[in-house]
Design brief:
The structure holds 2 protein chains of 2 kinds. By secondary structure, chain A is mainly β. Chain A has no helices and 11 strands. Chain B is mostly beta strands. The chains are: A mainly beta, B mainly beta.
């Protein structure tokens, strides 16, 4: 079974530039998550999708971050314009979406450095 | 807001020794997870604990859950160098995962 795929693996941009990350979840997983992991901290949820609908985006800085999952499969996360404090690893995860044994599977992440 | 706290944040231990990592959470939760993260890598699922009193073991790691105390433990037995990593606990509530701060474990030969 293929895992969660993310690209790119690494990205370096200057502040005020824009950047986009892509995630392809495990086939059949209805729920998709984007997390931000700052160095030395645990992952923090940015947005959660159930199929192509947003379940929770309360911690997404909507003035600069946006995410979509148009067809309920893969997803993109965009930052525009980037700030220095956005430097982090952006993790995508997916799960079946419910039930007692819901488990999230994580991608390799995209390491973003804003200079 | 659901808070998840781990201690210690950093742990350096000698090979062959035993130690326990603690995970406290602030409100009721459906279930608790333990993940491992190697430097530069993603999170790897270790255990899913579904009910009060649940205990799971895999190799030198054993996880337990006390929902009444809102506490989970990850016990390391006879540590080996390969266990060096950062360990996260996470609780799920309303379909959303809340992660702890992580415990960075270094096993010294």
């Amino acid at each position: 079974e293929a895992g969660v795929a993310q690209s790119p693996r690494y990205k370096i941009i200057e502040k005020r530039q824009s950047v986009a990350f892509w995630c392809n979840p495990i086939s059949g997983h209805a729920t998709l998550y984007w997390y931000q992991q700052i160095l030395g901290q645990g992952p923090k949820l940015l947005i959660q999708f159930q199929n192509n609908g947003v379940v929770d985006d309360s911690q997404l800085p909507k003035d600069r971050f946006s995410a979509e999952r148009l067809k309920g499969v893969d997803s993109t996360l965009k930052i525009q314009p980037a700030k220095l404090e956005d430097s982090a690893v952006y993790l995508c995860a997916s799960s079946w979406g419910g039930g007692l044994n819901t488990e999230a599977f994580f991608g390799q992440g995209t390491r973003l450095t804003v200079v | 807001e659901l808070k998840v706290e781990q201690n210690p944040l950093f742990l350096s231990m000698q090979e062959g020794k035993n130690y326990t990592i603690y995970c406290n959470y602030s409100t009721t939760s459906d279930r608790l997870y333990w993940y491992r993260q190697d430097p530069g890598k993603s999170l790897e699922s270790l255990f899913v604990l579904l009910s009060n009193g649940a205990v799971k073991q895999e190799g030198r790691l054993m996880a337990s859950l006390d929902t009444k105390a809102r506490l989970s433990t990850l016990h390391i037995t006879a540590a080996v160098h390969d266990l060096s990593a950062t360990y996260f606990c996470a609780v799920i509530r309303g379909g959303q995962f809340y992660f702890g701060t992580g415990t960075s474990l270094t096993v010294i030969p």
